[in-house]
Structure formats: structure tokens, C-alpha cells
Amino acid sequence: MMRASRRAGAAAAFLLPLLLLGTPSARSQGCCTSGVITLGGLESGVLPAGMLSAGVNYQYTALDATYQGTEQIDDPLRRSAAVAHVTLQVEYGLAPGVSLLGLLPYADKSRTITVESGPAGSGQTETETFEGAGIGDVSLLVKFQLVKPTLFSPLEVALGGGATFPTGSFTEEVNGARLSLDLQPGTGAPVLAGWSYAWFAWPEARAKAEAGMTYRYAGTNIDGYRVGDELSLLLGGRYGITDELGAALQVRSRFTGKDYADRRLLSATGGTFHDLVPLLDYGEGPVGIRAFAQVPLYRNVRGIQLTPSFSIGVELRFTVGTRAAAPAES
Q1: Which pTM does this prediction carry?
Q2: Is residue 240 domain-resident?
Q3: 278 vs 82, 296, 297, CA distance in Å?
Q4: What is the mean pLDDT of each run of 10 residues along the chain (330 residues)?
Q5: Collapsing DSSP states into helix, strand and coil, what is residue 268?
Q6: DSSP string, 109-171
Q7: What is the CATH number of the domain that holds 219?
């Protein structure tokens, strides 16, 4: 009976994010929108009371694949772009079953457009690059543990909620001209977020399955621009090669809709994105490091959009405090 109950709980935990596939969602798919960043705090359960985890995450994303619907095409504007994110994260266990996560991002974005500079058919071209950088919008998330893992039931289920605050600038200018919103470090609008995460482990096999969901509902900035909401889903598995070294494989999905500006929805925004993410992580004592890559599996966009072609990144984290013994959340 206990084994059947554990199986039912595990099934419910992993089905929860999938049931949210039907939720309407969106987030801006501007030229330099690079997608969800791999962050340990958003992909782990609740910290035990009194524990403190601090880390820094670096991710580089190249955007040079243009799609119209599901078809990859030559970009009519001959665009390419790159985004580098550095994100500081701190999480603290406030009480048993409750922790607080804070994220502070820094973004460096660039977009290049190649245009003809001579007579038609001459082959003469000119390249122009636009760049924007700065501290982005700060996020705070409170996480609650609904199901606590034990030696007899290595399952955790957690839910959370929070907000992103418009602390980053969205009015940066270069040579007197204001950069487009996708090149700005901030959005100028608050965002409400819902979050869930679950994992189930097989300690004897050094294996673990995980699922996660993040939903963002964006507000409107003072310019009347509303970045679309976003639903992000994660399904994956991990294998412990040794006690310190592990490998993981994830499938990430983003479901986005249209941005809103000038009292209308923008046509070339929003879509569906599926990516494959292999990871390696190493942890010894209070220090952990994780390296990852993200490659496209599927694109289906509205209009013509420049999309991410690959991402690579690394994350370094430190954890201090007393941790109660718990089964492999490795």
C-alpha cells in the first residue's frame, strides 16, 4: 500500500507541470530574447531552515537562426545577435519547508544588421551593430515544500510565487537614439511569477527524475508596452557517475504569446520553443559547479523571428549551514 501511494504521489508530481500546457502564455520574442536561464535556485527544491546558498551563473546565447512558423529561412534583414547574462542568486532557508530566493541579473546584448550600401546588385554591404548592457530586473521568489522527502519516500514537491521588480533601465540610449526594448537591460514593468518543482530519486541507482514549471505574468510599462507572459516547463533525469560527479539531460519548453504596444498585439512575437539541455555537475563539500549547453529541438513562431541557435553556460555555487540528512537530491 505504501509503495502504491509513493508511486501515485510521484506520478501526480510529474504530471502537474504537464497539465499546465493548456495555460495561455506569452513572452516577448524580440530579436535579443534569449530564453530561460539555467539557474540552480529555480531547478532545486526548498532549502532546509538556516541554510544559505549563493551562486553566480553565466550564460552566452547566439541568435542567428530565423524562423517563419516552423520553417528556418534566410533572414530578410540579415540579422544576428548575441546575449550574455551574468546572474547572482542567493537563497536562504527561512523556516522548515520555506526558503526565499533572490536573483540579480546583468545583461550584455548586441544585434548586427547587414544592409546593401551600394547600387542594387553591386554586392557592397555595410554592417551596423547596436549594443545595450546593464543591470536587469531583480526577482524574489518564496518557495514552499508541500511533500518532504524521507528515506522511505524520496519525493519532494514544492510550489512558490514571487515577483520581478522593474529595477533595470529600459530607456538606455546610444548616440541620442533610444535602444529597442529587446536590447534594454530591463523592461520597465513588474512581473508576477508562479513556480513548481518536483523530483523523485532512486538512491541505489544514483538516479533522479525531475520536473518544473515557471509561469510569468507581465505588467505594462509607462510607454504602454506589455511584454508577453511566459510558461516554461522542464522534464529531465540525472545520473550520479560518482558521489561528486553527475550528468543530466533535460527537455525545456517555452510557450509564449504576443507582446502588446500601441493598443495592439504585435504580430512577430510569441511562439513555441523546445530545447535539449545536457548538463554536467560536480560538487564537493560546500562548493558546486555546473556546466551546460542548450540546443534547439523545435521552433514554431508567429511571423518572422530571429531565434536562439545555441546557448552555453556555467554556474558556481556555495552552500553553508547545517543540512539535515535527506535522500539524494543530488
Answers
A1: 0.84
A2: yes
A3: 21, 12, 13
A4: 43 38 36 65 92 96 95 91 95 97 95 78 79 94 96 94 95 87 92 97 95 95 92 96 96 93 89 96 94 96 94 95 50
A5: coil
A6: EEEEEEEE-SSTTS--EEEEEEEEEEE--EEEEEEEEEE---SS--EEEEEEEEEEE--S-S-
A7: 2.40.160.40
